[in-house]
Structures are given as C-alpha cells and as structure tokens.
Amino acid sequence: MDPSFTAYYVAELPLQSSIRNFLERQRRFQRNLAVVSSGGTTVPLEKHTVRFLDNFSTGRRGAASAEYFLESEYAVVFLYREGSLRPLQRRLAKLVTDPVTVLVSEGHIKEGVASFRVTADAQAALVQYERALKEERVLEVPFCTVYEYAQYLELIASASAVFERNAILYMAAAVSDFYLRFEDFKSHKRTSDSALVLKLSCTPKLLDLLRELWAPQAFVVAFKLETSMETLHERAQLTASRSGAHIMVANLLHERHHRVWILENGRMEEIECPESDTEIEKRIVEAVIASHRCYLDADR
Ligand code: 9Z3
C-alpha cells in the first residue's frame, strides 16, 4: 500500500483487543461471521481538523443489513462511521414520534410525556437485537476518517481469515476514492489568504486487498454506486471482475433505498421494493445468505 496513505495509521487501534477477543469467541461457538461496513469516510485537510471532505452516506444500508444478518444467526462486526445509523438505534429514533415538541413545551423530558408508537415489526427487531447483545454476537467498531476505516478493515479482515469460507465481508460503506497525501497534510488550520488548490491521490483499492491478501477465502459482497443508469451496470461489472468480489450490488444514488441490482456470476438481477413494502436490505441479505450457503456447500 502507498506509504503516503499508511503514514496516517496509528501504532495501536483502540478496539484491537476487543476485536480479537470477539472473533475468538465467535470461532469457539462455530458461528458464521458477517463483517458489515457502513456509512461514509472523511478526508481531513488538517491534523487539528477544522475542515474535511465527506460524502452523502447515512448508514441505513449497513445498519439495516446488520440487523438481518443477526436475525439469521450470524455474528456481526459492524464497522461504522461515528454518528451514522446503527442497528437498533435507527429503530428507536423512529419510535419517538415528536421529541422536539416535548422538549419545547416542557423544558425537559418528563417521564410519560414522550409518545411512542411501537410497530410489531420494530418490536420484533428490538427483541432480536437484544438477544444478539446478550449472546455477545455483535461488536460495533466506529471510525471517522478513510485511514481509520482502512486500518480497521485490514485488522478485522485479516483476523477473520481463520473463518475461511464462513465469513462474509459485506462492504456497504461509501469509501472516499481520494485522499490527501501525507506530505500535503497540514498540522494547523489553513489560512484563507489565497485560493485553496488541493491535489488528491487515489485511495488504495481495498476490495482488491481483501480478496488478494487479507481474507482470500471469505465471501465478498461489494457495492457499486453511480448517479447515472448509463454507467452503472458496466462499471459494476468492471469492478466485480477486477476485484473478484463474489457479489456486486449496484445502486443509483437517488433510488438506492428501493431499487438495486445484484450481479453474481455474470448475471444481473433487479430487486425492487416500494417505500412502504419490505426493507430492501432484507431482500439483499436473503440473497447474499442463499449464495453464501452455495459457496459453503461447494467446498464440502
Ligand atoms: C453503497 O453503494 C451503498 O449502497 C450506499 C448506501 C452507500 C449507497 P446509505 O448509507 O447508502 O444507506 O445512505 N456503498 C458502496 C459505495 C462505494 O463506495 N463503492 C465503491 C465504488 O462505487 C467501491 S465498489 O466505486
């Protein structure tokens, strides 16, 4: 990997030993593993960061998918952007119907003032998630920058290589394609005395590293995002064959939460879920798990 990228790496990641302990525990219980990446990465422009580049990702795809993997008895490492949606939490946020009114009218939240509407679906998800927490089947790992993301991904993917074909790497995070070389990184806030011209370099292809080096036997699910239908399928196919991802999920920015295409073995299948219908992540995870089973059977 380019030393100008890894120059941002820290000597020791905060959750290093929790990750190793968690994975060892899941191995002892012979559980299948899903590593779900979620949310967007930042590219800071200064060490004492005032300004940074970011992207649109909300984390819904990753958070919802993690819930469905847990529902199917997988152990889950949820590698997510700090502040983006998280499993369970995203459902709790929907339950409080009008927290702002409560705060404004009362000055503080009194017990019994907030109103909740718990749908059967949300209730079931809460129960499922609580069970996964009790069974210690889920570990959440927050990141912020593209460098933290890459360093955690390398650590988690390499440590999960012992799961061999039993691990799914489900790469839903929207990872910055560009970064600022370490030599151009400023320690303190940039002045605004003159125009700022930034030259960004290409982020190392993490998908390729996953397949080639870090977890060569894992089942890899990658996501391709485009903003135009004209380029979507062709670019998804190109990235799938370059990286060797087993499944490529192609989506368009503005309809990503109700339509995707699943590309597998050269075949493209469309999945569409109207807003009010089943969450599209449920359908994606079902398709991924079915393919993962075939991948496991092929090895027996
Ligand atoms: C996706 O395409 C995800 O589906 C979204 C989900 C980020 C669009 P939200 O978080 O959105 O629910 O708001 N993720 C991967 C996008 C990506 O960066 N892919 C790379 C690329 O398109 C690698 S294949 O080049």
TrEMBL record:
Pfam family, one: DFP
Coiled-coil region: none
Entries under Gene3D superfamilies matching the protein: CoaB-like
A GO molecular-function annotation: ligase activity
SUPFAM superfamilies linked: CoaB-like
A biological process from GO: coenzyme A biosynthetic process
Domain DNA/pantothenate metabolism flavoprotein C-terminal residues, every copy: 112-265
UniProt keyword list: Ligase
UniProt record similarity statement: Belongs to the PPC synthetase family.
Protein name: Phosphopantothenatecysteine ligase
Organism: Cyanidioschyzon merolae (strain NIES-3377 / 10D)
